[in-house]
Specification:
The protein contains 12 helices and 9 strands. By secondary structure, the chain is an alpha/beta fold. It binds S-adenosylmethionine.
């Protein structure tokens, strides 16, 4: 291990940025974390042990990567900014079992990378990241669509997005993103993080969200997962309008369709006047399945 102060300290971050002439790039969502307590708490929230393989998205100059390297079996870090690769190679050189590759996570074939890059790919795979906020949802959707069984996904994001991920039905944060996560994972906010601990400081506060696989299976399965989520997004297109109005936009207004929709809502005991955010995931699945049976979806 190196004798220098840890990368995530303000002094070392400044020194590294100065030495390599690094100017953060807004286009890549670069806000470097400079608080060792927060960094260590992230590793703890992710419950990283020496038996884990970690994928880190966006290592930046390696502040979180260093903490992960000290706790995990192996770390694979994917960084889109090629200018940071030589910096990462050098500052992380004291650590074995850390690989950094120049890779856009949204273009990555994750199962292949896991097989190729980890010495022991059979260990639990955990994702840990201080996410680039401009692509938080696409990254999460990609991770969930991937066939990899993530043991944990522990990621920092804008606080408002964290609240949407963990929202309860009936709240204004509850929506299509909440339901897409709930379909596969249990989400909880581990802790909030002030904007002041980043260089440069973003203009939003942040939170750490921990996602773990659902332990209780869904009581009903959708007729088609992709179509279910297309339907749910359609139902939330006009949040202030009733479910009925949204259904008309999704399904159409012809009298025969309206009659079938009325029957389905009656059967499921769902009021047409309810707002979409009041429906649970199970209710959305039941509704989509019933509409499909009526050839409406
Ligand atoms: N992990 C570092 C930290 O905590 O200080 C940096 C976090 S910074 C918020 C986000 C990082 O993600 C940046 O290093 C940025 O270059 C990288 N990044 C942005 N878009 C990316 C993408 N599509 N794939 C991989 N990395 C990306």
């Amino acid at each position: 291990m190196s004798n220098s102060p840890e990368i995530g300290s303000r002094t070392r971050t400044r020194a590294i940025m100065e030495k390599y002439g690094i100017r953060t790039k807004k286009s890549f969502g670069q806000n470097f974390l400079t608080d060792l307590n927060v960094l260590k708490n992230i590793v703890e929230a992710a419950d990283i042990t020496a038996n884990d393989n970690v994928i880190e998205i966006g290592p930046g100059i390696g502040a979180l990567t260093e903490q992960l390297a000290q706790a995990a079996g192996e770390v694979l870090a994917l960084e889109i900014d090629q200018d940071l690769i030589p910096v990462l190679k050098e500052v992380l050189s004291p650590y074995d079992d850390v690989k950094v590759i120049n890779q856009d996570v949204l273009q990555a074939n994750l199962p292949e990378l896991i097989k190729k890059e980890f010495k022991d790919p059979s260990r639990p795979i955990k994702v840990v990241a201080n996410l680039p906020y401009y692509i938080t949802s696409p990254i999460l959707m990609n991770l969930l669509a991937s066939p990899v069984e993530w043991a944990t996904i522990c990621v920092m994001m804008q606080k408002e997005v964290a609240q949407r991920l963990t929202a309860k039905p009936g709240t204004k944060q509850y929506g299509a993103l909440t339901l897409a996560i709930e379909y596969q994972m249990q989400a909880k906010i581990a802790f909030d993080v002030s904007r002041k601990v980043f260089v440069p400081a973003p203009n939003v506060d942040s939170a750490i969200v921990v996602l773990t696989p659902r332990t209780n299976p869904l009581p009903v399965q959708p007729f088609d997962k992709q179509k279910l989520f297309g339907f749910i997004r359609g139902c939330f297109a006009h949040r202030r309008k009733s479910l009925w109005n949204n259904l008309q936009s999704v399904i159409g207004k012809d009298p025969a369709a309206k009659e079938k929709m009325t029957t389905v809502l009656n059967q499921l005991d769902i009021s047409p006047q309810i707002r979409p955010e009041k429906l649970t995931l199970e209710q959305f699945i039941e509704l989509a399945n019933a509409l499909h049976q009526q050839n409406l979806l």
